[in-house]
Each structure stands twice: as structure tokens, then as C-alpha cells.
Amino acid sequence: MRKLLCMLIMALFAITAKSTAPVDVTVGPVTYRLYPSSLECSVYSCEKSATEVEIAQSITHDDKTYSVTSIGNNAFRDCSPLTDITIPNSVTYIGDAAFWGCSSLTDITIPNSVTSIEYATFYGCSSLTSITIPNTVTSIGNSAFSGCSSLTSIAIPNSVTSIEGCTFFDCSSLTSIIIPNTVTSIEYQAFYGCSSLTDITISANSIGFEAFCDCSSLTGITILNSVTIQEHAFSGCTNLKSVFITDLTAWCRNKFKKGSASPLYYDGELFLNGEKVVNLVIPEGITTLNFYQFGKCSSIESVIIPEGMVYIGKSVFNQCKNLKEVYLSSTVKELGAYCFYKCSKLETVYCAAMLPPVIKYDSSVDYSASYSFAESYPGYMALHVPVGSKDSYSTTDGWKEFGTIINDLPASSGIDNVTADSDWQDNHLKVYNLQGVRIPVDSRGDLHLLPDGIYIVNGVKYIVK
């Protein structure tokens, strides 16, 4: 009796397993995998010779109707003759490498029901010229459009928050792409080799390794927020000459992992709210410039560092080839290695600190080749310092190299606040003293009312005698 009972139970399990096991059904060139337990099915595979495919919205088998809800991994992989495909609204998921190597597919519309595009979904679809992505899609996987060399434009919907690694790798015909401000990160090699891309606007706060490497036609980029940029992000973007920003404070807080991470790397010009930055005034409230914020910026001719700035880091103004004058406030304590390296037109430096700021160098390289003013030929420059501090500067490494040291700035420990008569007010003139403190002027803009001295007016040196 016990043996008979065991046999009955085993037979029952076998019947149940058979009734819930997936079943493959072929309709035309497409094979669907049916799941009886959920009455859903997935596109499993397709004949390699198929040229046109319309995916069914549902499949009926053994008097049961199955809804087609997904396109499985590798379902159409290497169907190279496939030129046209229709995806029904019942599909919510498109799997890994689903259309990998469909080299004859020219366009595709993803229905509103789809919420994600997975890894390498359209990898190597070299004839794909256009694709419509609905705003229901919240994620686009790694390498999703890699090698789509005929794709010319694409709009990423507001629902997407990240562009994954290699997403548009080697999309060499891509000329324009709309990245919404919902995207907070652009991962490694996302646009590597997009050699036809000419301009792009970015609001992300993270740009990955080699993200725009070899985008050789890229001429302009707009960056809207503070951003951390990994090394080589713009390597090979040799025509990138214009960098547009709307917030200078945000730019000063950027973090570049290497010089090649900066979009200014190829002697680019910086534009603030559409105006070229020629006379740079670092905003108040910035106490540190870490690394390469303005390295190789070709538009800058003068720099004013205001009171409150303490540390100017490595290569911050490296190779600013048109920089002529620098004004350092009394609060500056240290200049990093290569800070003003190869600023070949630099003629005059004003330093308001009574004690010379520390000059750093790269310990792995000879001092003369890496200290703050290396290869900027300070022996031919004039250095203006506070009265009573010349001896200190002329005996301090990094400062004693200056050919002329002039003892003519006010002896001061720094000014925190500036007061003025009540009838004075700020107007369109931006006036700074050599301590980097902004001075209010009267409503008429009469600069002759200022006390005798040297001022910076809208970025230009102005002397009142």
C-alpha cells in the first residue's frame, strides 16, 4: 500500500511539472517560449534569414492565450538580413543583446510599455539611423547602442537618470543628442569615438573615464553644474575650443582627476553666460582651487584671487598661454606645483600677503621644472609685494626667482570688510583693490573719488594718483 501511494504521488508531481514547464512554439520565423504558470511568453529566437518580423501581441496554444511580455536575451542576435521589426505594446522588457548584430535594421520604435533597455541590446546594428525611446524607459544598459555607426541623432527621455558605460561607443555618425537634466551620471566611454558629435549640453554631476574620448568633431560643450570628471574624459577632442558655463562658482568646485579630464585641455576658451572670460575674478566664498580648474584656458588674460582664498592647487592655471597679470590676495597661503606652469606671457604678479605663500613642487621631478612658476620665466617678470616684505620674498624659494621685486603694495594682514559712505553703492563697475576685496563706487561711477592706489576695474588695471 505504501509503495502504491508513493507511485501515485510521483505521478502527480510529473503531471504538475509537465503542465507548468515552458513550451516553445514557432509562429512564422519567430519562436516563442510560453510559461503556463503565468500565461506569459517571451520571444525566444528567430530564423537567421528573416527580413521582416511582426512580433505577436499574444499566442494561443492548447486553448490558452499567452501575452507576449518580453524579448529574451539574444532573441534576434546576428539576424543580419532583418530590416524591419514591429514590437507590440504588450512587451515591457527587451533583454541582453536582443538585436546584437542586426546589421540591416534601419529604424525601430520602442513601445511605451517598455521600461528598460538592457546590455548590448542594439550592439552592432550598423545600419540603424533612428530609434524612438519612450519616456517610460528608466534605464539604458551598458553598450546598448555601441557600434550603431549610422545612428545620427537620439533623444534620451526625462525618465533616464544615468548613461551607462559604452552606451554610444563608436556611434561615429551621431551628430546630436539630447541629454535631459535628469541624467546625473555619464559613465565610462559612454560616447567614446562619436567622431561626428559637434556640441553637447551636460547637467550631470559625474562624467566617467574616457566618456567623450576621440569625439574629434566636438567644438563646444555646455556644463551646467559642478561635476567630477574622470581622467581622459576629453582625450582626443582636439577641436573642442569653447566651453560654456552659467555658474563660475560651480566651475571652481569641479574635480578633474587628470588634466585630460578638463574640456579646456586643448587650449579652449571659457564663456560665462555667453561672454568670453578674459579677466577672471574668482567668486567670493571659494577658499580652495584644487586641480586644473583653468588649466590651458586660452581666453584668460588676468586673474584676481579675492580675500578668503587660501590654497591654489596643482596646475590650476597650467599653460594659460595668454595670461599676463595675476593678483593674489593676502589670505593666499600656498601655490601648488605647476600652478602657473608655462604661462609664457605672464608679466606681472601682485601678491598682497605679508608672508610669502608656500611654493610647492612635484617631488618626483626636479624643482626647477615643476615649481609653481616653472617655465614661465619669472626672471623676466615684475613681482609687486607689500611694503616691508621685499626681503622675505627675495629670500624665499619660488619668489626669489623673480627678476624684479617691487615693494609698493599696502602693508596689510588682509581686509575682511569694506565700508563706504551711505551715498556709495555698487553699479555696473566691478572694482577690486589688490587685496582682492571688492570696493563700492558712487552711483555716477566716478573712479577719481577712490583713494590713491592700484585697482582692478572690470578686470583691467586702473591707477588713481
Q: Radius of gyration, Cα only, in angstroms?
A: 32 Å
- Largest sheet entry: 8 strands, mixed
Shape verdict = elongated
Report the sheet-strand fraction.
Answer: 25-35%
* Secondary structure category: mainly beta
Distance between the termini: 119 Å
Q: Please, how many helices?
A: 4
Mean pLDDT: 88
Q: List unreliable stretches of 5+ residues.
A: 11-17, 413-426
List how many beta strands DSSP finds.
40
Report helical residue fraction. under 10%
Gist of the model:
The protein has 465 residues and is mainly beta.
How would you describe what is shown here?
- With 465 residues, this protein is mainly beta.
- Helices cover 7% and strands 30% of the residues.
- The protein contains four helices and 40 strands.
- Residues 11-17 and 413-426 have low confidence and may be disordered.
- Strands 1, 2, 3, 5, 6, 8, 10 and 12 form an eight-stranded mixed sheet that branches. A six-stranded parallel sheet has the order 25-27-29-31-33-34. A five-stranded parallel sheet has the order 14-16-18-20-22, with no helix packed on it.
List the helices and strands and how they pair.
Layout: H1 2-20, E1 23-27, E2 30-35, E3 40-46, E4 52-54, E5 58-61, E6 64-71, E7 84-86, E8 93-94, E9 107-109, E10 116-117, E11 130-132, E12 139-140, E13 153-155, E14 162-163, E15 176-178, E16 185-186, E17 199-202, E18 206-207, E19 220-223, E20 228-229, E21 242-245, H2 248-252, E22 255-256, E23 269-272, E24 275-276, E25 279-281, E26 288-291, E27 302-304, E28 311-314, E29 325-328, E30 334-335, E31 348-351, E32 358-359, H3 367-370, E33 382-386, H4 390-394, E34 404-409, E35 424-425, E36 431-433, E37 438-439, E38 441-442, E39 453-457, E40 460-464
Parallel strand pairs: 3-6, 4-7, 6-8, 8-10, 9-11, 10-12, 13-15, 14-16, 16-18, 17-19, 18-20, 19-21, 20-22, 21-23, 25-27, 26-28, 27-29, 28-30, 29-31, 30-32, 31-33, 33-34
Antiparallel strand pairs: 1-2, 2-3, 5-6, 23-24, 35-38, 36-37, 36-39, 39-40
